[in-house]
Amino acid sequence: MALIGVIAFLGLGFARTSLDRSAFDLAELNKAISEETALNRQMSLEMARLVSPARIAPMAEELGLVIPNTTKQLLVDLNPETPVVAGSEVEDKSQ
After folding, report:
1. pTM for the model
2. Which of 32, 49, 60, 78 makes an SS bond possible with 65, Cβ 3.0 to 4.6 Å?
């Protein structure tokens, strides 16, 4: 009977130790998740800043990129038999 009591006591101690270790692991994981969430927020803000048109427009103007005053529509025929190259005139094959 005493042997069963000792085994039960040791079993409960082992179970308690395992649960405590799991609780510590869970706390570490929650801390890591919080840190990664904060890093993700910072990176999202940085990405939003980097892709902002207000930041990109002056840099593009320095490189000579401007919004054109006029635009031309370019139609491309995807028929492989008669490919159309941008800027070239389409030949009339009915002649």
Report:
1. 0.48
2. 60
